[in-house]
Design goal:
212 residues, mainly alpha, 9 helices, 0% strand
Amino acid sequence: KSMNKNADMLILGYFAPPEAAGFYRIAMSFSNLLGVLAAPIGYVVFPTMSRMHAMGDPAQLRRLVRRITAAMIAYSVPAALLMGVFAGSILAFTVKSDFLPALPACYVLLAAFVVANVTIWTRPTSLAIGRPEITTWANALQAVVMVASGIVLVPRMQAAGSAWAYLAGTLAANLMVVWMINRALPLLGAAPAAQAPGSPRAPGAPSGEDTP
């Protein structure tokens, strides 16, 4: 995970002039504000997700994931658009107009944080279902994509290129983790059909004598 946090700055420092690193840092700090409100959600929902999984209730877990996703879309997309519209004015007021070249990177990083917010449920879900390696593999993929994209884009686009590399890594990692979670515990499909009378019970399912 530390590699993901530092890879963009290391590549930028190697392939671009020092001012590009400054522009990128300003863009990252500004865009990261979009994730401030979303960050605690993973910690808040983790106990509920763990309880739902322990109770063998994938339908409830599926509904919770969908509610979180819808809420994050409703918050992140309008907030990102609003921040994008006023980004120039905010940067000019807070860090002076000398940093306005950071704007292209701001726009791309805002898109990356929208993706991260909308998939904020993936980490607590992978932990709740006992599959922490899913997040580990996603972090590894994000680092590889960021480094490969950065090496190609940063020499040409400098700060904006680093932002595109960050977006590419974020998209790749989150698509992978959603796919892996959905394979481990189908969250995106329909609820399982009712069991036909006389068919064998799934392990752990209550028998007729257990119901009042």
